[in-house]
Amino acid sequence: MDTPTEAPESAAGSAAADGADALASLAVATAQIGEALRCSDVRGFGDDGLLMVTAAIEAAGRRVDALRVAAAAEIADRSRFELGTGRLSAKKGCRTPSELVQRMTLVSGSTANRRMRLGSQVRTDYSIIGEALPPKFPATAAGLATGALGLDAAEAILGSLTPTLNRANLENVQLAETELVAAATGQSMDTCVPATADEIRLQASVWKSVLDPDGARPDDERAFQERGLRLGRERGGTIPVSGRLLPEIGGQLQRLFDAYLSPKSAPVAFLTPEQAQEELERSVLERSVLERSVLERDDRTFDQRRHDVLAVILDVAARSAEAPTIGGAAPTVLVTVRQKDLLQEQGVGWIDGIETPLSMRAVKQKVCTGGIQPVVFGDENAICSLGVPDRCFNREQRRAISARDGGCIIPGCQIPASWSEIHHVIPDAFGGDTHTDNGVLLCWFHHRTIETSGWKIRMLRGVPQLKAPPWLDPGGGKWRYVTTSRTRIADALDLRMGQSD
């Protein structure tokens, strides 16, 4: 009669035998592939044959990748911290399961971690009583196991949908997963060919915004704090640049690159260094530095200030008459947003050419600065009507407002008029007009933060007034006229001298 401990040992022995057989079969199959096709043979294929072999190799690679992920996840599971000295990694003299995977596969740490992380999301777990628990993303797990889904596409799906699990309806998340897997494997009714991993990543980001429209707000806050631009030390005659750009700034930079690098729109010649220096000196001379009784505290880091300077430069370059055009127009960033999201101030917008969604705060700033053009789609996405662009200050209005304000109206800000945006004091949604009596100059940073900084702006007979935030002006928040226009300052001085006579 078998003792209770002999049954598990027997089962373990059987499993070990099955594993050995599987390894032997895998070794034979690998050898056969190696004999049938060598790397040097690839050069002898015709065009169609080369493409067929490439697809077949990738299909085989997806099956191997699925086994790699499963093996790495199992090693990680057997190396759980709660197992103590009995964990697999410790028994083999490794500090972490990642180190053990690296030793056995010779891959990098990032690759080992990638496989373990992905495997943990698609593996079947077991409850305390031994019942099998389905994976959180069954469609992705099945597609990955059969080789129909590659690692890149699986990561794109899981990376976008995992954060929505705790905030969105589970049925909707699973619907999104099913649709994305269908698109990646060519089973979707919306496409006749399987989508690439990059296309799946784009679709998944849209699904994420639909499932969790409020999820972009904390991401936007974190991104706003992490923005920055750094110039490194000179090496070999060049200066490295690094940092992180907000999506709207990255989109604008990319658009300018497109304009300047496109063979159809690139200018014949750029300004010479002497001309560029002359333009810079002229802009400096046009700016006067004034003493103020109330100045804003600037808590931005140097990296953040560099980023914001780049944002201003990009805006000025895009508006410059010398900037090349795309399709007959200035290199303008196209932002799309659903009308109901804009009215309800939730959800996100999208920039042409940028995968990262745009927060509603950034969308509102773009609308305030660049105007809006309504487009109405029918049930089958046909364009039913196209509105006329509005809410955009024209060149004559900008000149008048620049002459009145002189530059960014926030006290202490040194951004000149030519580098500033025009802000609608009363938003269009509340009846505000695109008129000089409703527009003031703000630099990119103060325009982006005007709703959260505490500064208040109002117009009194066509002249802007400011009220400082409580932490800056604890004396009661007095409304003050503000300008850096030299002509308006001269008028104010004449009035004071006339009163003293």
TrEMBL record:
SMART domains: HNHc (SM00507)
Signal peptide from the UniProt entry: none
InterPro entries (UniProt xref): DUF222 (IPR003870), HNH_nuc (IPR003615)
Superkingdom field: Bacteria
Any Pfam family: DUF222
Domain HNH nuclease: 396-448
Name of the protein in question: HNH nuclease domain-containing protein
Origin species: Cryobacterium psychrotolerans
